[in-house]
Predict the structure.
Amino acid sequence: MTSQKQFHGVFTALITPFTETGVDVAQLESFIDWQISEGVHGIVPCGTTGESPTLSHAEHKSIILTAVKCAGGRIPVMAGTGSNSTAEAIEFTKHAEKAGADAALVVAPYYNKPTQEGLFQHYKAIANATGLPIFIYNIPGRSVINLADVTLARLAEACPNIVGVKDATGDLARVATLKHLVGDRLVLLSGEDMTMVGFNAMGGSGVISVISNLAPHISAKVQKLTLSGEWDKAREAHAPLVPLIASMFTETNPIPVKYAVSLLRKCSASVRLPLVAPSATVQEQVRVEMTALGLI
């Protein structure tokens, strides 16, 4: 099984570049190469930021294959494979394993609103169907349900290949309460760029990041500083990112970040319905903050 040690630092939650008719594979490959050259520690294709809800199954699988091939073992690929259908999540996870991904990121089932027992059985079924290391993605703001600490601890005990959690609750206390139950058994990654320093100070190991689509070098620097215990320097490096991070969530992710990446001339600003282009106000705010950081 893949070592937990490689799951640390900044993992970019990749945008998905689109053409008028599908995924822009050439731009995706170029974007991944750029991310690696800028020093990110890993990539996450087919997550929320990658517009996974509107990808066809064929597109989803193609993106995972492209990411694994392009990364070429230089950094780990954590493939987004979650679904509100357990069978579909198993299918995607098995495909990611066959494709050569290093781990799977499995979002909590959305819309169905399963009980804690349902969540346990969902993740257990997925874990039992694959040998891939699995990260549970807990994001109540999108999935409505919240995985309780005791459920996460129960899964860690029952499923050896469930190795970590992406926590997008924004609640730093959860790092402490979960570590109290599982110790170092689970790798804890923040799902919130604003908390990337504080999360690690509480015992986390990194962040699955939106902002690193735009500022991978700065994001990687912040993580390196936290992981070496240089907290004052980490806060200092993170501070200039704060206004830009805020601008990324003025409208639904990934609307602003996709527009921002287009300003870097690395993809089109196109998002798929029901998402739409950012308002003129948000476009201006994003331009201002990117200019202030010297990104454009």
